[in-house]
Amino acid sequence: MKKVYNYFKKNPFVLILVLILIFFTPNSLFSPGQNRERAIVIAIGLDKIENEYELSLLTFIPTPNQEFKQTNSVVSGKGNSISEAIFDAQLTLGKEIGLSHAKTTVVSQSMLNQDISSSLDYLSRVVSLPENTVFICTNSSAKELLKATNSLEENLGLKLDQLISYNANDVYVADTSLEAFYQGYYSVEKSSLIGYIEYIKQDNSSSSQENSEQESQAKAGQGESEQGTKSMSQQSQTEQSSGEKERGPINGQSQILNNGQAVLLRKGKMVAKLDIDNLNSINLLDNKKSLESIKITDVNIEDDKNVDMVFIVKNKNVNINTYFQNNYPIFVADVNLGLKLTEVETRGQEIKSNTQFTEISQEMALKIEKKIKEEFYQTLQILRDNKTDVINVYDLFFRQNRKKFEKFYNNLQDKEDYLNNITFMLNLRIQPDG
Amino acid sequence: MKSISARQTGIILFLTILANKILLLPSIMYEKTKADSLFVMMLLFAFELFILWIFFSLKNKYPNSSLKELLQKSVGGKIAKALIFVFLIFFLFKTMLTYSVIYVYLKDLVYQDEFGLLAIICFIPVVNHGVVCGLRAMSRSFELFFYLVLTGVVFCLVIAFFTNISIPYFFLSNPKDIFNTCFTHFFSFGDYLILFIFMDKIKFDNQGKKTILKFVGLGITIVLAIFLIFYCKYHDTAFMHNNAIADLLVFSVQFNAIGRLDIIAMVTIMALGLFQMEIFQYAFCESFVMVFPKLSLKYAIAVFDILFFIVYFVLIGKYEFMIMVTTNYLPYFSILSNYILPSIIFALSYKHKKELKHEKSV
User: What is the pTM of this model?
Assistant: First the structure.
């Protein structure tokens, strides 16, 4: 005993360690698991019904099973503010919510009729919703989308953030994350672009009708071409056999459609919806994005036989310059496109020439150029009309001609309308690749 | 007397340079001076290097003297104690600030809730133990973990290059803003003052001076790199990210899929936090023993713990208040402790040139 006493006297910090162990070990051993007190939220949905917010939480419920299957469920709460809705959801769950693992945040389109940042503020600032969460919009109810996502994940193992990650990498100009939204929101441009996922809830009669239509299309071999570049994830909300899944939509099915669309926001409010062509036009100015496909029609390749052709951009070199001419800002984009012919739609005609090694003729080049320019200027007009600068024109001018641009910008009557006062020039050089 | 080498001194300086600058500071600085905060940092580091130069010249003149001896010779015992008391207060608040910044980080990313008491129980005994073991044992531990900490910090920096980054806009702030921000954040600096506290325990020659400068250079480069990359990554949202080095690692969709990558930042920050608190508490305790020579280091530790509890929990309570105190009131105090006091010590050292010659001949 004396030895122990002397040891602790010599090493008082060992005593502190022992005391900590004595006090905290029983407490740790007998305290319930944290999942009993805290619900792990993996996705959040925000809806606004009249003046009330509805917050839906896709929560992960850790349960012991032998199938390595994750059990999720959607719980929602309502309130006059987001904090009230969270409180209501917590009451429903009987647990406190933890948002650190929330990888997706979905807002309904109706939420974007007002500045969304005020609704997100509480989530990101107080309850620690991570800013790297995927941030998307849906046409209908975010709650319904989360429910459909839940069954999508159960049956296919596909998560919503994985579904959108392709768009984030290859379709959108920036990540479709909360961080990317805020970066646009707090910038001088006040413009952001977020992903858009369409959710279609089908009733029995219409779905069966569409089902039969699609089956007949598939038989005619036109199913894929009708869909174009759209990718579609279909999911049943009820349990189905695998055979049914393969056939496509059936009775009671809902669809999650990822058309590569995006929503254009200005000061946190939705101002326009951009389709894949608009996004491709924006991506034209980005060296890193080169997955666009270009379709031209009525190309003559053999004795008055006209076909449609689809090219893909194999490589791209973009050089953007900004300068001032007579104090007016000029934006010039020189784009070199290396194209590869990927598809020839013969319209049922018999074409005997080898299209595999087709050179890009002057006619083709002109048609491609016309199409690209038309789409680019259309998209530019959308951006100009909505005073949204998601192609970072302000940034480019500010970096390349800071003094002149500041002078020009400060002299504008409507500073937000600077895009309309800039001349855009798109120079295309089209050449075959591969 | 147990002394420490130039390399160990360099590592201690490296750790203190990183204190309070790599988590919250880039974010709160951005509010006023945007990306020009980088120039604010350069300016503040320039002041710091001036203090380091003062220390080197003092050490050159008085290689074996302690701060207390130096001051006693010049201004007498009571005034010397009063001057050292300023350091004592400085290091008490410095430890609290370091603790607060790490607490905010852990609260945000790990615990989600307030865990004040638990944090104190986990941190304080470890820090106290380091101080009891003494400067040499502490320095050896830092030497052992130095490359681990350095790797962690560099990893966080490097990973940011794989996300979308672009150079932020510079020269948006006017000189007034820059100098105001400099003043506001004086308290986050003054790290080289620890050298004055245990100047008699540091042994180095000219080569050793170079070694120390290498570590100082490395520390400054890393801090500036964190600021630059943080602003390159976040631009206008920099003010929303309170944990700069950790946020460089985690906030990107690309790395969302790679599980808990932030654990690397967590381990690095925890290690850094503990080491920095140990150094600052040690500096407090040494100052305490110099002011109250009849009391031992253990008393100093006990006093520190009690003061820490009282000041932090009773008077300050919330870390937000702590940050407010350090940016609103303590900058005035920091001018005295960080710049005026070392300059006074330097000036006084000239007063005793003759004594110095005598000491050297002895």
Answer: 0.85
